[in-house]
């Protein structure tokens, strides 16, 4: 029987098939062919853990390793050639892959225990093409398909008007939208806002982590090397992995010191319900208390 395995490497993401009775040696050779890499390490699972591909382990069967449906991250290694006067060793010892021109900065946090970095970056944690439009449409459809759960009393407006605004690219989402996405994708969504962690969908097996900047949400990801493409980033973790939450909060604290968070006290805000225009989040909060309106967008001022 053929089993499916996903690969993430510096060349991008791909999928391979292999017989479940195949050996680890055959898998390694298949990965070499697929990625065009001759030397690498392999990691898999949530959180990532190394897959032992030493010669003593390569006779193990794929079935015994329980790799069906797994995603394997392929990290290339360099091997130093031996001096010409000496015979080559039977198994050259790999040395860590060296980043090609990308050095860590304040927007990343080294995680040596797991051999990589926690980073924040634009892009979807769920992994979709055109994620903004797709997620907006999914949330809007979910609301309209659950009228008893998402009524005018919950949304602060008629569901049809609310979802029409939500489909527009300049409208913000918030707690309601995160809760819905948690149900759609069966994921806990942990949102870090000024070092506070809000969890949506507690009790699920896996989580994604996002960081609220004051205007938008950015993903938290793990990468083994900053020069790798974003396709190989790990953006999902087991919900019992509290260490990754601690690391994400540490990164948020560092970003806070770099003024990553947008100062929302002075920018101009427009109410999407009645077209009221005001200034900053305090003005928006006052308007919400007075009218019950809770949908706001930033008003772009142009010369």
UniProtKB/TrEMBL annotation:
Residues 75-106 are annotated as: Disordered. This is Ubiquitin thioesterase OTU. It holds the Pfam family zf-C2H2_OTU1_C. Residues 79-97 have a biased composition (Pro residues). Its EC number is 3.4.19.12. It comes from Staphylotrichum longicolle. One of its GO terms (molecular function) is cysteine-type deubiquitinase activity. Residues 7-51 form the OTU1 Ubl domain. PANTHER family: HIV-INDUCED PROTEIN-7-LIKE PROTEASE, UBIQUITIN THIOESTERASE OTU1. Keywords: Cytoplasm, Hydrolase, Metal-binding, Protease, Thiol protease, Ubl conjugation pathway, Zinc, Zinc-finger. It is found in: Cytoplasm. GO terms for cellular component: cytosol; nucleus. InterPro entries: OTU1_Ubl, OTU_dom, Papain-like_cys_pep_sf, Znf-C2H2_OTU1-like_C. Residues 266-298 form the OTU1-like C-terminal C2H2-type zinc finger domain. GO terms for biological process: endoplasmic reticulum unfolded protein response; ERAD pathway; protein deubiquitination. SUPFAM superfamilies: Cysteine proteinases. It catalyses: Thiol-dependent hydrolysis of ester, thioester, amide, peptide and isopeptide bonds formed by the C-terminal Gly of ubiquitin (a 76-residue protein attached to proteins as an intracellular targeting signal). Hydrolase that can remove conjugated ubiquitin from proteins and may therefore play an important regulatory role at the level of protein turnover by preventing degradation. Residues 131-191 form the OTU domain.
